[in-house]
């Protein structure tokens, strides 16, 4: 056999191997696509005659930075998903347009600042952010947001690619992205066969299910959040971190921030500036709820038994978790930190002092034909204070 023939044989085998792997991956993706056709959403049926909550998305990028959609296209996607507002956080966009109503959706200006320690999101500024250079020191960005009257948030603070690396400023910032769609995606890259491929396959048939398959929380964000929340009031947010891929509408249908009617009754003011103030005050108060709406609406949920303004309660207090109507076995309360879930599954005794995180999880469609537990309703934490002598 000639040398040329000898060389072609290994090359041919290599090509066959590559095509074999590709066909195998396509087959596996096809299996998950088939399974996705049986995924049934929502898991929890909507409550009849309930007062509507104000629904929105926080941490969204447009063509003003690295997003694929214009602000108008983002508003169209938000309207299709039934949202009332979107907080736009384009990278280092220090002079964003003023708040405005577009296609029935309130677009609220915000920013995501690139610092040498990670990314800092901010919203609710009363004045322009000044004196900040991209990739500058983190303390400069934090101080600038505070001077502008805004609320600063550690964006995807514990992810592998862009974690927040400065401990001193982490203790200063009030907001924390406890769940981040971008972090979920980057986590899946570390498990391409068991997590990313099922999500890609499911997206071919059921895009929202594909996004939800990425929502697999890991312990480190909660651990870090509770460390910081023991010191002062902190707010938990779900960061859509939407760039247009996956589609904005699919991300909006998967997770977002919602405001209870007792915090902010619907509808919002038609004056864009007034509506912006209503939403940003509610978000920064810690009374907004992180929701995975694909699993169901939050109507009927409440966490009671603490001071709603300070989000504090003394040791020994028993919190009550009021759950939306649901089929038994589809919902469970989970508790982290200085609290203990009582046997009835709806009361939490505060055992602190420290902090307690209470979440509601739902039994959601899984990667195959079964179900997996996923976060559904996520309020901000409650600080547990020492009981005063004599009380």
Question: Would you kindly provide a brief summary of this structure?
Answer:
This is Polymerase/histidinol phosphatase N-terminal domain-containing protein. Helix content is 30%, strand content 26%.
Could you list some keywords that capture this structure?
Polymerase/histidinol phosphatase N-terminal domain-containing protein; 10 helices; membrane; 391 residues; globular; TIM Barrel; 4-stranded antiparallel sheet; Pol/histidinol_Pase-like; transmembrane; 26% strand; alpha+beta
| Number of E strands | 19
CATH class of the domain at 54-293: Alpha Beta
CATH superfamily of the domain at 54-293: Metal-dependent hydrolases
Query: Which descriptor suits the 3D outline?
Result: globular
The CATH architecture of the domain at 54-293: Alpha-Beta Barrel
The secondary structure category is alpha+beta
Low-confidence stretches: 19-25
Plain-language structure description:
The protein has helices at residues 3-36, 71-80, 138-147, 167-170, 181-189, 192-203, 207-214, 219-229, 248-254, 272-285; strands spanning 54-60, 85-88, 100-102, 105-115, 118-123, 151-154, 175-180, 235-239, 256-259, 289-291, 302-304, 312-314, 318-322, 331-337, 339-341, 347-350, 354-365, 371-378, 382-385. With 391 residues, the protein is α+β, with helices and mostly antiparallel strands. The protein has a domain at 54-293: TIM Barrel (Alpha-Beta Barrel). The strands form 2 sheets. It has a 15-stranded mixed beta sheet that branches. A 4-stranded antiparallel beta sheet has the order 11-13-16-15, with no helix packed on it. Helix 1 (3-36) crosses helix 6 (192-203) and helix 7 (207-214) crosses helix 9. The protein is globular and about 60 Å long. The chain starts with a helix and ends in a 6-residue tail after the last strand. Mean pLDDT is 92; it is low at 19-25.
